[in-house]
Amino acid sequence: MGPSLRGSLLLLFLSFFDVYLGGDLSRNDKGVVSVSVSPGRNRVPAVVAGNRWFGRLHVIVVLMLIGSGLAVLGGLLTTVVLALQSGRHVDYGFPGLWPAQDKVDLEQGLTPGTQVVRTMVELTAFNAGDRPALTALFVLTWLPTTLTAFLALFWLSRITLPGGFGDNVLFSVRTVTLLRRIGKVLVIGSLAAVALDFAAKTAAAHILLQGAYAIPGTIVSPFFALAAGTGAYVVAEVIRRGLEMLDDLQGTI
Amino acid sequence: MPPGEFAGGIEVRLDELLAARGMTLTELSYRVEVTIANLSILKTGKGRAIRFSTLTRLCEVLDCQPGDLLRYSAAGE
C-alpha cells in the first residue's frame, strides 16, 4: 500500500471521527493530520442556511399534520360506510383477522421448484348481523393511533410556528410544556392503541371466526411512537435544565 | 425542607451603606457601571448570584469589605 493511499485511508477514517465523534481534524502544510477532541465537542454546530431550514421543517410538519388529518377523515368515512352498508353489497369489512384454519391454493402462483414454507392468511370479514359491534370495534383499531399522531403533530407544529423562530420563544417554558404534552400523548396513546387494537381484533375474531384466538395487532408502529415520545420527554428535560441555567445566568449581576 | 432549598438567605445591605455615605443609587450605578435595575434587584434580594467583579467594584466605590455589604439572615429574622 503506497503512502498516499495509506494517507487517504487515514484521512477517511479520521473524517468519520470528525463527523461522528465531534473531533477536530486539521492537516498542516507537510500533510500531517492532527486531531483534537475536546474543542470540537464543545463547539455549537453552525446553523445551516440561517433560520430558513426551520421554516421548511414547519412546512413538513404541517404537511404531515394535514396527512394525519386526512387519515382521521378516511378512517371516519370507512367507519360510516361499514356502519351503513347493506348485507347484500359488501365492500368494506373488519380487517386484520387471522383465521384458525385456512386452505389456500398457491400452486398456480409459484415458480417451478418453489416450496411454501409457511403461510399466514389475513382476512377482512363482515357480518351484517353484527354490524353495530363490528363498527364500534373497527373504530378502536384505527382511531387511537391516528388521533395520537394527529395530536403529536399538532403540538409539534405549534413549536415550529414561524413566530417561534426567536431564541427566547423557542427556548422557553412553552416549548417544554408542548414537548412534555407530545411525549405524554405518544407514550400513553401508543400503549393504549396497542391494547385497544389487540382487544378489538380479538373480540371481532370471536364474533366472525370459528376457533378464533387472540390477535396481537400491530406492534411495530406503536414501538416507534413510544420511542419518539420518550425522546420528546428527554428533549423537554434538556431544555428545562437549560432554562434553569439561563435563569441563573440572567440573575447573576 | 426539600434538598437544595434553604430557609435563610443573604441580604445585600446597599441601602445602609448608601445612606451612611450619602450616596444615591443613581450615582452608585454610574460609578460601578451596573444598571439601576440590576442594583435594585440586588437590593431587594431578588438577585440569584453576584460576580466577583461586581462585588469588587461595589467594595471599591463604597470603600467597604464584602462582609459589610452581605449578611446572612436565618429564617424568620
TrEMBL record, chain B:
<protein>
    <submittedName>
        <fullName>Helix-turn-helix domain-containing protein</fullName>
    </submittedName>
</protein>
<dbReference type="Pfam" id="PF13443">
    <property type="entry name" value="HTH_26"/>
</dbReference>
<dbReference type="InterPro" id="IPR010982">
    <property type="entry name" value="Lambda_DNA-bd_dom_sf"/>
</dbReference>
<dbReference type="InterPro" id="IPR001387">
    <property type="entry name" value="Cro/C1-type_HTH"/>
</dbReference>
<feature type="domain" description="HTH cro/C1-type">
    <location>
        <begin position="14"/>
        <end position="69"/>
    </location>
</feature>
